[in-house]
Amino acid sequence: MSKFNNDKVMPRYMMIALVLTLVGVAVIGKAFYIMTVKKQYWTEVADRLKRDSVVVKPTRGNILSGDGQLMASTIPEYRIFMDFQAAAFEKGDSLWQDKIDSVCDGLAAIFPSKTAEEFKQHLEAGRLKTLKNGTKGARHWPIWKRRINYNTYKEVQKLPFFNMPKYKSGFHEEEFVSRNRPFGTLAMRTMGGLYGDKDSAYFGLELSYDSILRGTPGITGRRKVLNKYMNIPVTLPTDGADIVTTIDVNMQDLAERAVMDELKSINGELGVAILMEVETGDIKAIVNLMRFYDSQGNPYYAEAVNSAISYRCEPGSVFKVASFLVALDDEVVDTSYVIHTGSGVQQMHGRWMKDHNWRRGGYGDINVARTLEVSSNIGVSHVIDRFYGNDPTRYVKGLYRVGIAEDLQIPLVGYQKPNIRMPDTKTTDRSKFWSKTTLPWMSIGYETQIAPINTVTFYNAIANNGKMMRPRFVKKVIKNGETIMEFEPQVIKERIAKPKALKTMQTILRHVVSQGLGKRAGSNLFHVSGKTGTAQVADEFGGYHSGVTRYWLSFAGYFPSENPQYTCIVCLKKSGLPASGGGMSGLVFHHIAEGVMARQLKVSVDDARDAQSVVIPDVKDGNIVAASQVLSELGIATNSHWGTSYVYDTPIWGTAESQANKVVLKKTASNNKLIPDVTGMGARDAVYLLESLGLRVKLHGRGKVVKQSLPSGKQALKGCECILTLE
Fold first, then answer.
1. What is the pLDDT of residue 372?
2. Minimal CA–CA distance to 528: which of 550, 561, 553?
3. Using 50, 70 and 90 to split pLDDT, how confident is the model at 643?
4. What are the φ and ψ backbone dihedral angles of 439, each rounded to 5 degrees?
5. How far is CA 348 from the centre of its chain?
6. How far is residue 658 from each of residues 620, 631, 638, 655, 707, measured CA to CA in Å?
């Protein structure tokens, strides 16, 4: 028998369980009440609390040009707010009402787009705002809607009332990291950018080298001492390092202006230019301009997409160089091989192929070299189809061998490697299907997709005697003036073709400019080598027959031909005719090439001297004291020294004779009563000398005195008029 009385014990347990259940329900109910009804109140309380530790952001590294100029740097920006529940707004405190007018006047002076009355209405609205908890006065009321720089922030902070401690006045700020570009939009798509309110990169070099530029955050502990918080560093932040790019600011500006001017002239849709240093592969300039329209429908151009590395399209005739280089390297043809192009229209496996001059009768019989000079579609496709038609895989492997299809592994997000497909007739994918017409049309730049960066790298290898360099955008990483990482030029291929084939192609490319379709890209000051390209490209819907034909115009080449220093490609996209790769893109290439080479000219007086140069000046007769001093300052020898300063010394009148290596100054006899001979003098000395004798002088002409109306040696009579003729 149990010693416990269940009838008495169980009710007690039930009571305890009921009480605990009610307490639990109350806790859950209170928590739900706090999470919903009191959410705003406790959120504001949490915002006012100071954390024990705060993350300290490091300073982001800078991006520098190749010559050390600042292209992107980090600067602080601020948004300013008012806390209308600060000490100065307690009941009975009239300080705000006394200062509000002067505060608003100061704000209107700093931000002229808004009047003092508008500022007053805006601030009063924040002060009178009723929060959800019933209190009056916004805690985070924006004073100005946009961010301001440091100097503007300090100006606002000096205004009456705002210059008090923030816990007293309620004036406070939020600091943001802003990326500043001293050169504006220059090479913007390549430099990259950050998201507005975050130190987070999203394109360009900013993104590719984000881990280097960002640095490492630090931690600061916060301790409350005498009702104030003291920051105690726990871990110091490590600022980001700087990266030195290969971009040359002057070359970039030159290229952008050249592309911009031509796009405006032809009403183009897209413009790309890449300037590469031959020996190192350094990208000195890269332009990506697209056409946009403002709210009034007016066109303007800006960088929005890095098309130079991402816009894969059918390259057109600039691809013919790769086709013929494969044939020359395989030694299936040489420059003497003659091609019958007829009247400019021929059938290729049931499909008509035309040369650009087919309406004018074509080119007839031409050799391989002339085929590239005049960019004959029939000539190129005939050679490739005849010698590779039975084995197209050999041709495509040749394209990979010469490097036109190389994956450049560029450290920029968005790079698209070339798409040159291998022969495959069994695939069900129509875009990959290989037909009889694929080879001849691929040989002239169709049925492939290649970005401009790959094309310019291929041409750069030809200029570099076969050595293909990887495009380099960043040279080194520096920290506190010391180099901590260096990126050496990288060789992708030591040789893309045999030396004989390369020398032949270099000669052909030079003739394309000197006597072919690329004449407008040439210069009278140095030789240029390159190739034109004009291709029809698909519209935005992937078709070619939408009513308006779009063209991809290009010119790729290098300069100077004898000792190549730079390789450049210019690509323009436009709708409708006229459309000419040589006449439009070639003209931009011409401006870039001449502008780049002009920067290397030496400006020196010694360089300007030749056998016809006049080194000893022609000195006029007159005050030889003045002449002596001027010649002495110029470092020109004279026969004797006639004084230290013509300003203070008594004038000595004489003649000057210029000899081979000096100027001979001779004193002439003077008589204060006789009219002197002033022929050969300048107007200033002649007038001074004659008027000192009391004569009145009139001048006709300019230069030296060649004739005087009163003969020399005669008695000088005061008041007589002497007319001087100067030439």
1. 94
2. 561
3. low
4. -60, -50
5. 45
6. 10, 11, 9, 10, 21
